[in-house]
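One such shown below:

_____
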Amino acid sequence: MGRHYAEIAFTPAVQAEQTRIGSRSRYERVARDGREDGQLGPDETAFVAARDSVYMASVSETGWPYLQHRGGPPGFLRVLSPTRLGFADLVGNRQHVSVGNLAGDDRVALFLMDYPARRRLKILGHARVVREGEDAALVADLAPPGIEDRAERAILIDIAGFEWNCPQHITPRYSAAELAPLVARLETAEAELAKLRAAQRTGGEP
């Protein structure tokens, strides 16, 4: 576990609960001697680049957490540097809850899932909104190809810490793109089977 992540996540109330259940000494060592997690390494960079969705939590002025999903082609969430992520915020339902929240509190938590491989990465950071009028080139650059005109703003996230989670309790799920090779093989097998059955009925060669 990363040192920065532990420092942020393990508040006094969390530490008290860890003490109650007997895990505090282990996590106390992590907070003191944990790995450096202020910037992404090669594994994290590759993982982020392969994702086609992310869940982002922000904090409202009333103190309530707000969770929003963002999706796009793999790589829509861009690793701009080992310490910064960015993505284009596209035209949506015009509620702008996350954007409004960031105006008052820049803290965010990202949750990235790889369901087939049962892996997940949590990233804590500080987010900043960059509107098209401020840096149109950045907004256009972060937009997925072909839909640059739908990008209203960019969200830049400076990384405060991250943590990988164990695969326990992650149910494997597969996207249509991930299933496409299997579907193609199944269709080919079904076609071959149909040919064999037809040949058996006619007594000819398949």
In short: Residues 37-173 form a domain with the Pnp Oxidase; Chain A fold (CATH 2.30.110.10). The radius of gyration is 23 Å.
